[in-house]
Amino acid sequence: MKILLFAILGIAPSLLWLLFYLHKDSHPEPKKTILLVFLGGALMGPVALLLQVSAASAFNPSASWQTILASLSQNSYLFFLNVLAIAPISEELLKYLVVRWQVLKDPSFDEPLDAMIYLIVSALGFAATENLLTLFLSQDLTIKMAFSQALARFLSATFLHTLASGTLGYFVACSLLNLKHRSFIFLTGLSLAVILHSLYNYLAWRFTTNDFFALIIAFLLIAMAGLVNWQFRYLKKQLSICKIR
Question: Residue 101 has what DSSP assignment?
């Protein structure tokens, strides 16, 4: 029973945000495609973790995987390597690749806004796996603590994933509307998503030692939410994509 409850709490933050964002799409996407992208994002969670642990292991090959997992955000050089560099880059790229492989050549991908919607769906699948791993890898976690952790991640980490990927999705849409500068626009969006993700990771790390950083995290998320909301409204005004190759 406890395992089932933890599983529900791990997935719930992503499902709630999924309902919110799908409601913002005036032209709903096929449910099957949404499900496949969500599952694809979820499968990228273990891949990202493997990449991050492998990178940390290269710096400390004699340590066990359990020790490495426990020290990813504690050791200074591992923190810089994973939290500020490898984690944001690998996670944003993996979430994007799900959409690139599953959606960009699909006939249902016919509006600029679709890029944001699908990137966010992929991010929510990824966040669901991340939330599940966080809950099940935590030691001596009570049901009350699990509820608190799920709520905290709903308002922070899961939200961050949607906003960073949503921002990248906006630039993906813009790149498809401007094929001449497609690569530059995409790399700009990817860089911005990685920077915002990295900044959040740094602030979350500092929050463990200083509660003041909670206010800065809240300000960052509110600012990102404002940006994504503007991007949504802007893309809604654009014509359907005529050519996405």
Answer: H
Tokens of 39: 């599952």
Structure-token pair, residue 29: 């996407």
How far is CA 53 from its chain centroid?
Answer: 18
Could you tell me how far CA 225 lies from the centroid of its own chain?
14
Note whether residue 149 is domain-resident.
Answer: yes
Q: At residue 194, what is the residue type?
A: V
Long-range contacts of 220-226 (CB under 8 A, 24+ apart): 220/196, 221/155, 221/156, 221/159, 221/160, 221/163, 224/160, 224/163, 224/164, 224/167, 224/196, 225/159, 225/163
Domain count, the chain: 1
Domain that holds residue 39: 2-236
- The verdict on residue 244 lying in a domain is no
For residue 232, count other CB atoms closer than 10 A to its CB. 19
| Global pTM value | 0.89
In a domain? residue 79: yes
Average pLDDT for runs of 10 along the chain of length 245:
84 95 85 95 92 71 56 56 80 96 85 93 97 83 85 94 98 91 96 95 79 90 96 82 47
Instruction: In whole angstroms, give the CA distance from residue 166 to residue 116.
Output: 5
Residue 22 lies inside a defined structural domain of this protein: yes
Sequence-distant (6+) residues with CB within 8 A of 13 are 127, 128, 131, 150, 153, 154, 158
Residue for token digits 């029973």?
1
